[in-house]
Amino acid sequence: MFNPRFLVISLGNPLPKYESLHSAGHFVLNGLTKALRQPAFREVTLGRQSCLVSQGPKYILVQSPTLMNVSGGFVASAWQETVRKYGAESLSLVIVHDELEKDLGVVKLIPWDRSPRGHNGVKSIRKSVSEKKYPESPFARIAVGIGRPEERDAATVSRYVLNKISRENRTTLEEDAPWDVVKCLMDLESQWRDAVQGGSGGNAEP
Fold it and tell me: What residue numbers bound the domain in which 100 lies?
């Protein structure tokens, strides 16, 4: 019987200290509890660290408690702990992260092996978690657009992603984008169901 579960982990710098566009994944996850009718976040220990988790029957929403660029160790530990509980064949890993190349609030399901495009959080995770060890588990990324400043120099881009987020932008990420994330999760489940019924595993298609 096909009984899928999704471990959905958002990347960002810890809130509320770092309330910036770079933590877009966390803001989207805040709103995802409402869109999925999940329980409120509560602090629990997962992956040997204290973090915020919303545990539902199908979706386990987790805000990574680490700084963005060193997310890999936590994600690997949280994944392995959850796999031990539910089994790899019924568990999918989904990473929600910010994306400079998309307009604010634009959401897209991305194959796991697609280029990180310089995203250090994604790079850290890919160094720590190997999807090849879990052929029955769909691994995928959901990118959330945060836009990009007109100037492309590193200092300007850094200020743009790390400055305090505006109330308007936060509302877009917490109230609008989560509904598109739900669609991505449904698409991923549909792909997974087709793969299981067709007798093969696999990651998200483009």
Answer: 5-198
